[in-house]
User: Fold these one by one.
Assistant:
Number 1:
Amino acid sequence: MWKSEGMNYGRMDRSRHFHRECGHGIHRRRHFFTKEERIQMLEEYKVWLEKEKQGVEEKIEELKKTL
């Protein structure tokens, strides 16, 4: 979700379930974030939601024109 918008953070609620294996063993995402990091993630998420809302509104207008 967020990666497509250039964000470097995964969803905070999924971070504890994510892991991957590579040549150096298993690497996991961080579990704990600073307040500043959480604020930044939420601000970026807000921007993503605003863009999504704008896209939905544009699609609704486009569909209304075809009625």
Number 2:
Amino acid sequence: MGNHPVRSVLRGPAAACITLLLALPACSGGDTGASSARTITIGADLPLTGGEGRAGASTLNGVRFFVHGHPTLDGFNITVDARDDPFSPTRDTSRGVQNLQTLIAEPEVMAVIGPFDSNVARAQIPIANRAHLAMVSPGTSSRCLTKEPLLPAALNPARTEITCSAASLPSPASLRPTGVNNFFRLSTTDELQGPAAADYASKQLHLLRVAVITDGEAYGQGLGDSFSARFIRLGGTVVAHEDLDPSKAIDVSAFLQAAKKGGTAGVYFGGTSSNHACAIRSQMASVFGQDSAVPLLGGDGIALDPTCVGDAGATAADIFATVPAADAEHIDSARSIIAAFKTQYGRPEDFGPYTIAAYDATAVVYDALDRAIKASAGNMPARDSVVAVLAATTAFSGATGVFGFDSAGDTTLRLLSIYRPSGPDPEAAWTWVSVVDYSAALPY
């Protein structure tokens, strides 16, 4: 995820030590009775309480489900040390830093699954980098964690790149004091969300003219610019563009009237639900008519969010939003894993959007550990050797498909999902409608 909270179906309280149906250590420091000399621990830093508690708990379930099926590796017992890192509305990263430092102090910890939030990742990566500890995140999407620039020139209608520093973000190089990358992730990155929405708008909704609005913040402007660049490249026209002031209430009625006169058939919004983005959808109804099917498109700042649906009201069904990750329930190779998981875990809330991503993150760590242990003649590998082996991963067969990591640590399986609300009920699950795959070629 980026720096905005995880959305609707991921909400709900969860205990810091999740009670699972598996005979595994559910809390940090759990004693499995195994000799520490022949034990390897996989750490996890995820939100297990608070507003993202359900998201983190269902993600941790993916880690534990894999470990449950593979309790030993090359003569080592595998344990999980899960640390609670609840989402902070003030972007306080101290809990995540403390968790990571605790895990680093445990010599048997060979890798960490997490974090969930890009802001936490910025604080953790340099610390783990100095400790030569691998981190594999199932869900962070900020491009500046791994690559410059924030927005490539080809995704900016002005044809100039926007650097990370221009968005007040640290560069990837500054996060890696050793000069060696130790951070890997299974989600794709935010600069592809706008193009994915443009592809869907052009190729599936058959829109030719759109208007673009952003909330004026770096995340939203990046989405708006990348959508515009891709939509124009596909032959479409952006009839109007406006960057709002996020400190003011949204009122775009005049803008929408001008866009209507320009023949717009859709509106793209770059921003988050916390800025009441989806209030635009209800304003669209007053301009285009209550029965108008003119859609509102956006990114994961609004996707799956009950606040968005609540703000849109009766017009919510005509919202389409991207998420920079695969929807495992619509991937053939994941279906048997999901079925086995749901047999083991009986409650619907135990499974979430990042459960299978975490399963694959754990699986690729196992693969790296296996190769590192063998290279160490069956002994405990050095942490930096695990990092090196992960970096060399090119064609790992996971539940979500075959993937590797590029030189920056990003997944080569670049899938983005598109969802829409199922109706006006804020608590109802959103419906998956499509996937955009940029694995073979980037959209710029």
Number 3:
Amino acid sequence: MNQKLIKQTTLDVEERTFTVRYYERRTTNGASRYSAEVEFHEDDYMILDADSLNGLETNLTRLVRASIYSRMLVETRRAA
């Protein structure tokens, strides 16, 4: 099951810009699955999966925003 990069974009959330790479892969029964890799920092990624590219893009902004807030909470607790 090889993945194929189908597009790379940027996503602007909370005045920050993130690189997003979209991949497609075929399952053993021939169906397409999609994933998006969001790069927060060079060693901090989030990967989302979905059955459709539209569904993936729809959920992406909301989930990236939630991930940003959770990372901010962790950083705040570490600083305290």
Number 4:
Amino acid sequence: MTKIYTPKIGPKGQMTLPKEIREALEIKEGDRVLLKVEPDGKVVLEKAIIVVASKKNEFRDATKI
């Protein structure tokens, strides 16, 4: 069964992600999220993975394993 959420947008354009969404994506306070707008207009929300520039090559090499 698909669950639907309708968070309210505040005066500064902010919204609160429902607890169940935060838990599903393992998002905690201070984490960043990635929002992608697809060509068909859908918006995808993912937990962002931030890679420090000094570790960039290590991360790239690890993804080739």
